[in-house]
Amino acid sequence: MANISIKTEEDIKGMRIAGRLAAEVLDYIEPFVKPGVTTGELDRLCHEYMVKVQDSIPAPLNYCPPGYTPFPKAICTSVNDVVCHGIPGDKVLKNGDVVNIDITIIKNGYHGDTSRMFFVGEPSILAKRLSEITYECMWLGIAKIKPGAHLGDIGYVIQQHAEKAGYSVVREFCGHGIGKVFHEEPQVLHYGRPGTLDKLAAGMIFTVEPMINAGRREIREMGDGWTIKTKDRSLSAQWEHTVLVTETGFEVLTVSPKMPPPPAFIQQTAATPAAAA
Ligand code: MF3
Ligand code: CO
Ligand code: CO
């Protein structure tokens, strides 16, 4: 079993601020995600907003886990068949593209990590459905979070929902503990069996960030050392929140005024952002 840290009250206060700032970058960038914009321009705008408006630090910039080269940009932009870790650059977004924008900021030493899907112009029926199912997967997983529940409970509901829709769950990447460290224990798998893996306790903070493919689950890494695509070139979607385990359930930390509401079937409690906002 993993060694999962329990955050202090002070940590939790810091993580609420970091989470909100990360989500607010997504609110800020939304109107710029239009046909004709480059992913590099989206990166430039987000980077400037973090540094100049928020006085926050983009965590991806020069991030260099063992075996990797330093990530060269401030955000990740993953378009169409890119699963995750897309590097912003000259790519021009066109009508019908779907892009995941993944923001991680550092404020007062604490990390906030969140991503959303954006449609460029009009999405295809498939892209829309894949994004919706993936969003539901994330929320079904989050809704399982409470003291005494197991990490496997989260993975199970995500996998069930994705596969029932005819989609597949990427296995090589997962959610993660987060705090003063970007990626820490535990690993939060997006597949699994109920009642397995670590038991949750109040004060844990981790992300839920399912990557769901319209086709097969296999992936391949591009020559840049970061970009991950689906092997069969099928579309991939991802949504991400950073979540605190509370005494009674969960609190989503990556909340902001323009965040999409939880799906209607998610029980509205004090822990869900619609009530917290
Ligand atoms: N934000 C990603 C996550 O959710 C990690 C990106 S690492 C980077 O864990 F270096 F590519 F930015
Ligand atoms: Co993450
Ligand atoms: Co992220």
From TrEMBL:
Q: Which reaction does it catalyse?
A: Release of N-terminal amino acids, preferentially methionine, from peptides and arylamides
Broadest EC class?
Answer: hydrolase
List its EC numbers: 3.4.11.18
Function, as annotated? Removes the N-terminal methionine from nascent proteins. The N-terminal methionine is often cleaved when the second residue in the primary sequence is small and uncharged (Met-Ala-, Cys, Gly, Pro, Ser, Thr, or Val). Requires deformylation of the N(alpha)-formylated initiator methionine before it can be hydrolyzed.
Q: Which GO terms describe its cellular component?
A: cytosol
Mention one GO biological process in which this protein takes part, according to its record: proteolysis
Q: Read off the PANTHER family from this record.
A: METHIONINE AMINOPEPTIDASE
Domain Peptidase M24: start-end pairs: 14-247
HAMAP family (alphabetical): MetAP_1
* Keywords of this entry: Aminopeptidase, Hydrolase, Metal-binding, Protease
**Residues binding a divalent metal cation 1, per UniProt:** 102, 113, 240
> Any note on cofactor binding?
Binds 2 divalent metal cations per subunit. Has a high-affinity and a low affinity metal-binding site. The true nature of the physiological cofactor is under debate. The enzyme is active with cobalt, zinc, manganese or divalent iron ions. Most likely, methionine aminopeptidases function as mononuclear Fe(2+)-metalloproteases under physiological conditions, and the catalytically relevant metal-binding site has been assigned to the histidine-containing high-affinity site.
Query: Which residues of the sequence carry a binding annotation for substrate?
Result: 85, 183
Q: What Gene Ontology terms describe what this protein does at the molecular function level?
A: initiator methionyl aminopeptidase activity; metal ion binding; metalloaminopeptidase activity
Cofactor(s) listed in the protein's UniProt record: Co(2+); Zn(2+); Mn(2+); Fe(2+)
Q: Which organism is it from?
A: Noviherbaspirillum humi
Kindly indicate whether the keyword Acetylation belongs to this entry: no
Describe its assembly.
Answer: Monomer.
What are the binding positions for a divalent metal cation 2 in this chain?
A: 113, 176, 209, 240
The record's similarity note reads: Belongs to the peptidase M24A family. Methionine aminopeptidase type 1 subfamily.
According to UniProt, the name of this protein is Methionine aminopeptidase
